[in-house]
Write a structure and sequence with these properties.
Layout: E1 5-7, E2 14-16, E3 22-24, H1 34-39, E4 46-50, H2 56-66, E5 75-79, H3 86-100, E6 104-108, E7 116-117, E8 123-124, H4 127-144, E9 148-151, H5 189-214
Parallel strand pairs: 3-4, 4-5, 5-6, 6-9
Antiparallel strand pairs: 1-2, 7-8
Length: about 220
């Protein structure tokens, strides 16, 4: 990435030109890591994955390092807990960030914490677990008075069979039919549309619930 980093001739700020938005993974976001050191020196908007092992104090220290000037829009926190851990683990982080006044965008990655190995050996992600984590993400922010700001999903427009479940009800036996990924299992076209419509319903419900607060 350093080879693709350039200095703005007008501001003197440094930017990584390989992408407009870069993020630090859950396994590389420890203090003084090479990834943290690199991203703190560039002006791009950046993200950081937040999983079950991240404690509130460590998160606050990382935010102070990565966004010391507290520039709005600079930091996106991407949660990736798993469907059965998000409502237990996320509130403490949200409260700490809110208490300290850090301006962050909260986003949800419901994919990486919900990987399972099927009985036939294929790595997959159950649609129902993905949806459950998204619902938990919205529930936490509703309870804490903060805002769900985004969703990170891995998907394809192809009719693959890599994630189980959904309205089309892909079973573990179906995985072998069109398992094309070279890395992680993706939502297919039908599952992606289903998730999008369900997300729209969640957003509409959030707006209805928050409307009295605005009034």
């Amino acid at each position: 990435e350093q080879a693709l980093t350039r200095q703005d001739s007008l501001t003197g700020d440094w930017y990584d030109t390989s992408a407009h938005f870069l993020w630090i993974g859950d396994r590389t976001r420890f203090e003084n890591s090479a990834h943290v050191e690199f991203l703190r020196g560039i002006g791009n908007p950046i993200g950081m994955k937040c999983g079950p092992s991240l404690e509130p104090d460590a998160l606050l220290r990382l935010l102070d390092t990565l966004n010391p000037a507290r520039v709005p829009g600079r930091m996106t926190l991407i949660t990736r807990y798993g469907h059965d851990k998000i409502e237990k683990g996320l509130p403490a982080l949200v409260r700490a960030v809110k208490r300290e006044g850090h301006p962050v965008v909260w986003s949800c990655d419901p994919m990486h914490g919900n990987v399972v190995k099927a009985a036939n050996g294929y790595k997959t992600r159950p649609f129902e677990r993905i949806l459950a984590e998204v619902r938990g993400f919205f529930a936490v922010h509703r309870a804490e008075g903060t805002y769900a700001g985004g969703i990170h999903a891995e998907m394809t427009g192809q009719n693959v069979t890599e994630c189980t479940g959904g309205a089309i009800d892909i079973s573990e036996l179906d995985l072998a039919d069109r398992y094309h990924t070279h890395c992680d299992p993706r939502l297919n076209a039908g599952q992606s549309l289903e998730l999008a419509f369900l997300l729209a319903e969640m957003v509409n419900e959030e707006q209805k619930l928050r409307r009295p607060e605005a009034a």
